[in-house]
Amino acid sequence: MVQLDDPRIRDALDEDAPLPRMTFGDHLDELRKRVIKSLIAIVVAVVGVIPFKDQVQAIIVGPYRKQWQIGFENWIETLQAEQKAGTISKDRLECLEFCLERKTEIFAGTYDLPQILVTRSGYPVPYSLYATGGLEDILSFMWASLIFALIIASPVVIWQAWAFIAAGLYKHERAVFLRFFPFMVILVGSGVWFGYSIALPYSLGFLISIMDPAMVGALFSVGQFLSLLFMTTAAMGIVFQVPLVMLALQKVGLVRHQAFVKHWRMTILIIFLSAAIFTPPEPVSMLMMSMPMMLLYGLGLMLTWRGQKREAPLPETK
Questions:
Q1: In terms of domains, do 164 and 286 share one?
Q2: pLDDT of 12 above 70
Q3: With helix as H, strand as E and coil as C, how does the chain read?
Q4: Is 201 exposed, middle or buried, given 0-12, 13-18 or 19+ CB atoms closer than 10 A?
Q5: Do 95 and 222 sit in the same domain of this protein?
Q6: Structural domain span for residue 158
Q7: Is the pTM of this model over 0.85?
């Protein structure tokens, strides 16, 4: 059986010589070995993550706490405006005094009775997420552990995938991938950071701000929030690949730079439609996703403009 790691294969790859052939069974056997190694790395990472439940949940709750602090600041400003206007009630004045007195502790996470913050501060949004069932917290943590394990084990998983794919590529093909792969990782990381730090907290804050506490109270379960967090960050990570996708389409000759420029109106429409589909049904999330996409589209136009000199010439029309 021909092994993908056989030096003869590497020599052939480096010399751009015809590649030795492998049977379908050889491919399956090699794929099985790569998958097993990847799964072992993931299982080890999961075992390593499980003891850090508090730290993992703190990361998960991070966007929720950020929007909570923004809303809490707005609540204090509302009470202060009422106090300045002389229209604040006695109960709301007591809430304002508590908020101002305990604000530093609350924001630092050192206030020892967070469960009574709604009552003492008057701010109608709970400080913590809720578990609607006895198993929701632990099941959400297990899903989060798997996600964190995938991130931790990603170097091993990516290497195993690359080792399987690269054996079927020539030297120049591997060089193209390796040249763009770091930018792919940077764009994915930027998209995940944007979704985690900006898109989710502010869109969630908008949803809460349009609720009337007298009729609808804001109550988020840990399972629902984890799903929302994963959906938002994953969508942003994919969306941030737009410049590389545009450059790839240009390099393979499917779309030219002038075509990207010519159809910019249709592209903007597609961007807003995509944002409406892949985000929660409210305008802030849609704008939070569509605005970066338009900026990334502009970046893609710059990259394809630089690469248009290497485009194949158009066939002459008779």
A1: yes
A2: no
A3: CCCCCCHHHHHHHHHCCCCCCCCHHHHHHHHHHHHHHHHHHHHHHHHHHHHHHHHHHHHHHHHHHHHHHHHHHHHHHHHHHHHHHCCCCHHHHHHHHHHHHHHHHHHHCCCCCHHHHHHHHCCCCCCCCECCCCCHHHHHHHHHHHHHHHHHHHHHHHHHHHHHHHCCCCHHHHHHHHHHHHHHHHHHHHHHHHHHHHHHHHHHHHHHHCCCCCCCCCCCEHHHHHHHHHHHHHHHHHHCCHHHHHHHHHHCCCCCHHHHHHCHHHHHHHHHHHHHHHCCCCHHHHHHHHHHHHHHHHHHHHHHHHHHHHCCCCCCCC
A4: buried
A5: no
A6: 140-310
A7: no
Q: CB within 8 A of 52, min separation 6: which ones? A: none
Total domains in the chain come to 2
107 & 162 share domain: no
> Does a structural domain hold residue 127?
no
Residue 267 neighbours by CB under 8 Å, 6+ apart: 260, 297
pLDDT digits (tens, 9 = 90+) for 279-302: 656 676 677 778 888 888 888 888
24-67 pLDDT, tens digit each = 777 788 888 888 999 999 999 999 999 998 898 889 899 999 98
Residues 158 and 111 in one domain: no
The residue with tokens 């609350």 is 106
